[in-house]
Amino acid sequence: MSAAHEDLLTVILGIGGVLVFASAVGWLLARLYSPEGESAAIENLNDRIRAWWLMVLALALAFLGGRAGVIVLFAICAFAALREFMTLTNAGRADHRSLIAAFFIVLPVQFYLVWIGWYGLFAIFIPVWVFLLLPIVSVLAGETRNYLVRIAEMQWALMICVFCVSHVPALLELRIPGYDGRNVLLIAWLVIVVQLSDVLQYVWGKLIGRRKLAPRLSPSKTVEGLAGGALSASLIGTALWWMTPFRPLEAWGMSLMITALGCAGGLVMSAIKRDKGVKDWGHTIAGHGGFIDRLDSVVFAAPIFFHVTRYFWNIG
Amino acid sequence: MRKGLARICGRIITFFARAVTAVQPVWQGVDPDQNRQRIYFANHASHGDFILIWAVLPPRAQRETRPVAGTDYWQSGRLRRFIGSEVFDALLIARKGDGPPGAAIGQMVGALDEGASLILFPEGTRNQTDAALLPFRGGLYHLAWARPQVDLVPVWIENLNRVLPKGAVIPVPLMCKTIFGEALRLAPDEDKDTFLARSRAALLALRPGRDDKAEVAA
Fold this sequence. Notes:
The structure holds 2 protein chains of 2 kinds. By secondary structure, chain A is mainly α. Chain A folds into 3 domains: about 1-65; about 70-175; about 180-315, no CATH class. Chain A has 11 helices and no strands. Chain A has helices at about 5-35, 40-65, 65-90, 95-115, 120, 125-140, 145-170, 185-210, 225-240, 250-275, 290-315. Chain B is α/β, with parallel strands linked by helices. Chain B has a 7-stranded mixed sheet, sandwiched between helices. In chain B, helix 1 (about 1-20) crosses helix 5 (about 80-85). The relative contact order of chain B is 0.19. The chains are: A mainly alpha, B alpha/beta. The interface between A and B is medium-sized, with 32 and 20 residues. Chain B: Pathway: Lipid metabolism. Chain B: GO terms for molecular function: acyltransferase activity.
């Protein structure tokens, strides 16, 4: 067994341990304060923990499955996210062909480009090619009502749900000296830090949260939660520096960057939900909402994390 | 053997329906687990409509619920005939004008008397217009009159018309909901037009508007 594999197993077992602890706490809370399921907050907490088990299981299987596993997993996430996003757009009958193209051509092609490692096209396929070609498909239907809104929303959906999400598996393509065969750990590290930051923001917010960060966007986010969550997640990110090609101090800086981006991503996606008048993006992950509700922070952190890492650590 | 094949096909079809639409049932007015004989009446935009209702019913109700569908579509071709009759046990009726008057109602009443629940599309045909809902044909009234003890449950299918709009062959993946409203029955002395207007309004009332969806974002 390679060192990377051993480290990966350590990480998975570590997360399993955290989940066992979380499940125990959730069980105890339910037993003490909500034996008949009367506390919605505790029921939701336990729903979330159960969903985490499934998500961690899916991630662990994908990581152990290697490149193909990771690419397929994130392609499925992108599909589910795109389905949620497109549902809320104005894309209608006239855009049917564009939607077909978005789901069945653009999405597979983008992940295929990750698979073959064609960085030059991967980086511009959706921002340039699709940006220009998709409106042509829509315009041929001859419907001008809401045209700009429709094509702009479709492009946004593809950027967020396909382009940004594809940057997570794209981390596998980076060639970092002294980090051969360990790239999957970099993905694990990114996901752990960003998701832990979400969880810790929630926990700190519940414990000491007073001042609301952006009451009109997201009533549950507080300044204390953000600060506590970002700081504690960054500390954990620093402590896990051995998973990354970074030195501890660099890992700390990177952690701060991705937690800040993740939080901002949550706010941006919240604003879109508000605009569209919905509470959650979907209903498919019990306790969490939809895929985008869970992915929003990773979506915002991944591309910039990818490019910063690529710029400073990659050897072309 | 054929029965097993039909069951597997049913699983495959509902799996694809879920993969494309992630269909979510919203039980607003009736309890899904309460095992009662019902006539589900829904808006009709595509041939896949009844699948979204059927897919979210509890297994026991699934076995007892038969979609009412047009013979002309579901009898053409072996595959459709297999899916219609054997997978979903559809009650196939001749379209208006194709058979003796009242024959279709007679078939539906017969199925009700055998204990089946029905899925019915009272618009009579797929709605391919921009209107939310076409006027109802009389069938629902005649059924309610013939078997007044059966609950009539309105079911709004949200978004499937966007998944598979008029003339489209390939469905696009978008999230769908099936919203089950409160059961209604024919009131004593209620005439046909009043009843049809009332049941149509009950179905339209389930339609999620952009405005009343506004809740506090998490």
